[in-house]
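User: Run a structure prediction on this.
Assistant: Running it now.
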Amino acid sequence: MRMRFDIVTIFPGFFAGIFEHGIVRRAQAEGLVTVNLHDLRNFTHDRHRTVDDRPFGGGEGMVLKPEPLAEALASLGIASKTNRALQAVQAASAVPQVPQVVLLSAQGRPFTQAVAREFATLDRIVLVCGRYEGVDERINELYCDSELSIGDYVLSGGELAAAVVVDAVMRLIPGVLGNEASGEFESFGVADIEISAATDGVPRSQHGAGGLLDYPHFTRPAEFQGVAAPQVLLNGDHQQIRRWRREQQLRKTLANRPDLLAQAALSEEDRRILDFLGWRKQ
């Protein structure tokens, strides 16, 4: 599978270096992912290359104008949502490939691991980076399939958010990670029943996260500044390790993100552990 990301931004230079390291660089080198940057100012028609204007109704700041954004999307072969829907209906193929256009905005729905997994099944994502006070809402209404926020805070623009989305989605594409199981056994991962990772006859030493946070990790040396790694991790008993890791997942989630427990895939044993830890389901 090959995935294409297109990023529309007024600061293409912002991404210099971000996609040139680690897994993102390797995925591009291996042809699994392409990341294309598109300078919004190239779609303006005045000598000042103006991309923003004052908001109707007054107020602080500036708003990105709709015309350059619409031209930028058209240059990428992106029609309005209405026309794309018609194209999909008219397509003779069973599942026509339709790009997903995403507006990055503080007003968007939360970007989660579940959304990343959904996006990882697509062939192409177009990310529109907001700036200033935001984007003219008509672009959102006419062109964008979803509006996403990476957290309950305000950034100067959507570029950081775009980098986060690319990284989170790209690592879920088959072949990108060196060990395919790495994308399953981690925070916010899927439940045990959904995990297909082979065990080669060895009992699995970890649970799927099932929406919980990951367990703590330790490596050599066995003792560091007077603090020893947990003995259970050193004894080679996979069943004991698995039980310990699950308890640590539950402890860490209860301490740092108790809100996740309400929707997590919990077994009866999980609930007994949580009761012992003092969890009171709301």
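The radius of gyration is 23 Å.
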